[in-house]
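Bench notes, afternoon.
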Amino acid sequence: MRVQPTPPSSQPLPEVRVATDADGVVGHAGLRLLTDLADRLGLTRELGRHANAGVRRGALDRGRVLRDLAVTLAGGGTAVSDLAVLRTQPGLFGHVASTSTAWRVLGEVGGDPARLAGVWLALARARRRVWAHGGAPPGDGPLLVDLDGVLVDAHTPKQGAAATFKRGFGFHPLGAWLDRGDGTGEALAVVLREGRAGSNTAADHVGLLAMALAALPAGQRRTRGVLVRCDAAGATHGLLDACRAWGARFSVGFDVTAKVRQAIAAVPCDGWVPALDSHGRPRSDAHVAELASLELPGWPPGSRVLCRREPATAGARASGKPVDQAGRRLQAVLTDQPDTDVAVVERRHRQHASVEIVCTQVTKLRRGAGVGGGDHVADLDLAVGHHHPVDQQFHQLAALLEAGLVKAHP
């Protein structure tokens, strides 16, 4: 099959038709689907409405520049200069900004909080349209919002880069992701932080959660509810109080302290039930129990702690993970979910681990970044934007892919 451009019409992009001849062969033709979808959903227009503020009449539409940057990232681009992949095919992608213009747009957006907020607002409105056309997460269970941080190495002293708690050097951004429950996810919010930023800074988590909840369609949020998941870094009074105030339930990791160990020892033998694997099947070597005797003063009413025990791996023992006298690894979860089946609740929390893979793949500052902090912020936002449902989850695009490719990443 060949994609052959036809003469441009009044539309922003040239029309194309599929021909079986040997003329008009193009590369990366699939990215045109993302470009058209962004336009039809109104995302390009919304981006331009915010990013063009204060720009002289007749200047290049900033919305198109941001759209093309996001499409480039979705196609596997790793630098702003990779826009050349689109620019060299004007018959397919129309006029594409130069690298210097793209950098200038990133600087304008990243340096203006109002414009940057407008980018997130545009994404939220596009998500609402996608979900209204059948792109909402399947099922009727709560919307699963995962919070997680990732360390991004910097090999040069960029603005904001600093020593990290793992003795590296770079940034420590926080992200919020929606687990759709079908192996895919959506980026909801991200904040760029210095490398020295803490893992359990409650104010950062609360601000991130506010952005994530604002990114979800209000109707779905009200009817289905929200479950916020995080590792032990989220076990702070500030974050959990915010969850309670905003009507979201929580499930976070919990430190295995001496009091927790005492509560574990008090659990009777018949208080342990088999843990469930990723397919929902009982495991014979892992068990879960609720620590009913553990008092939780100061935590939101209805909070409870669950414990999982399983054979400790060599890596877990070497890294000092909590184990009991029998050598079994211990993991605790603090949650306010009212479900009576503790194995189901614990399994639901463990599925949070999938966000670590997504977070590592997406929250990367691209090579060649400038020294301005605003450029980094806009660059990171666009890196997250290419995991937006506009180019990842919309069911019409997914229907064109084989089952295994729906979950693929560039």
